[in-house]
Write a structure and sequence with these properties.
alpha+beta
């Protein structure tokens, strides 16, 4: 594997880790904020019941439990960075300890009731709280903690060994169940996180490929390929489209005596100004042709008003002062535009190893020849009669279309009636 894919995978992994750390931090804060008061109340219940039962309270231990609850609230509000793992271990320890102490209090009050108390299910709550922290190690630790707690509670829950609850083979399944559940949950969570990481890397890879492809074939083409399966993406189709050819006039003269870098810079700026109105009207720049371009309206994206969109884009280009100055300004270009509407074959065309989205058909050839005719007639933008007929009558009246008659086109035997689109 070469360095570029490895670098992309590392970036995707790092981005996923940042998301995971942010999710851990958010969930940890939620757990601390919501469960903090609950465990503080639980600590208070433990303390009060301990006194009422006449037990000798280990003041240091109860103080530690209370301090742990207060630390919950403090950490939830003050800690803005990622919590270190030892803090999470302490909070999970505190959660498990409170559950064990509540069960111990129940055994001192009523041992029969304690054996059926819902508090015995507290380990599952601790397990769930560890799970939302997105750390498999914490989930396993919570299982070990619950198992140890149930083992320590055995002498207090089973003072009467004659009851079925206290038979070793029956009692032992509870801590084993907690531990097995924790292990399965940890493995499942780890598998899910790995799957999410791979999915994230795949999505980022597709996005990067789409962006890179969009720079080569246009965002519209890249998007249309991304939305269909591979078989459909490789199919060609017949489409009714409007084809626009644009050429920069006197480009050869402009290049004379200039440095190549200067020519490329000026050409890029000019092309950028052409692309903007084409995209604004829903068109697609299909390919750059040296000192010009081929634009499509109605492919690959559907556009019922593709002819109207093409004429609006052409008019915006003609009205742009940057192009109106022509070659009188040494840093600017004048343009020649040819537009024709008709049916084409559209889709990926090429060899097995390299394909290019393009359009083929007489419509494309006619549009190219119409653009070349501007030089003969001294016009800036010409459209065919078919294009004029495809326009709504209301728009046709608003556009300044001047009939220039029927003219022969190079490579064609018939005449084509043309109209000048004036800016």
């Amino acid at each position: 594997m070469n360095a570029e894919p490895q670098n992309a995978q590392s970036q995707a992994r790092a981005e996923f880790e940042r998301w995971l750390q942010a999710a851990r931090r958010r969930n940890e804060r939620i757990v601390l904020l919501v469960m903090g008061p609950i465990f503080l109340v639980a600590a208070g219940i433990i303390y009060v019941n301990w006194i009422e039962l006449g037990l000798d309270p280990p003041i240091g231990f109860l103080a530690m439990v209370t301090a742990g609850g207060l630390a919950y609230l403090a950490l939830s509000q003050l800690w803005s960075r990622d919590l270190p793992i030892w803090v999470s271990v302490l909070t999970v320890t505190f959660e498990g300890t409170v559950g064990c102490l509540l069960t111990f209090i129940d055994t001192q009050a009523d041992i029969v009731l304690a054996r059926s108390s819902p508090v015995l299910l507290m380990p599952f709550v601790v397990l769930a709280l560890a799970l939302v922290r997105y750390r498999a190690s914490l989930v396993i630790y919570s299982g070990l903690l619950s198992t140890a707690g149930m083992a320590l509670l055995y002498p207090h829950l089973c003072t009467d060994m004659s009851t079925p609850f206290c038979m070793p083979l029956i009692y032992i399944w509870r801590p084993v169940l907690f531990l097995v559940t924790a292990l399965i949950t940890a493995l499942t969570m780890r598998s899910v996180l790995e799957t999410l990481a791979l999915a994230n890397a795949s999505i980022l890879r597709r996005v990067r490929i789409r962006k890179s492809l969009g720079k080569l074939v246009g965002e519209e083409v890249a998007s249309s390929f991304a939305e269909v399966d591979e078989a459909a993406a490789l199919q060609t189709e017949r489409r009714q489209v409007t084809v626009m050819f644009i050429d920069f006039r006197s480009f050869t003269r402009f290049c004379e005596g200039r440095d190549g870098a200067e020519v490329v810079s000026a050409l890029n700026e000019a092309l950028e100004r052409l692309i903007e109105p084409i995209r604004d009207q829903g068109g697609t720049v299909n390919k750059f042709l040296g000192d010009g371009l081929l634009a499509l309206f109605g492919a690959p994206a559907d556009d019922e008003q593709h002819t109207v969109s093409a004429l609006n884009a052409a008019r915006d280009i003609l009205d742009d002062p940057w192009f109106q100055d022509g070659m009188e300004d040494d840093d600017r270009f004048d343009v020649a535009i040819g537009i024709h509407v008709g049916e084409v074959i559209a889709g990926p065309i090429g060899s097995r190893d390299r394909l290019e989205y393009t359009v083929i058909g007489d419509t494309v050839n006619v549009a190219s020849r119409i653009e070349s005719t501007n030089r003969t007639l001294g016009t800036r933008a010409l459209i065919s009669a078919a294009t004029c007929d495809a326009l709504p009558q209301s728009l046709r009246a608003k556009l300044r279309l001047r009939p220039v008659g029927a003219h022969p086109l190079k490579g064609r035997t018939g005449m084509v009636e043309l109209f000048e689109l004036q800016g």
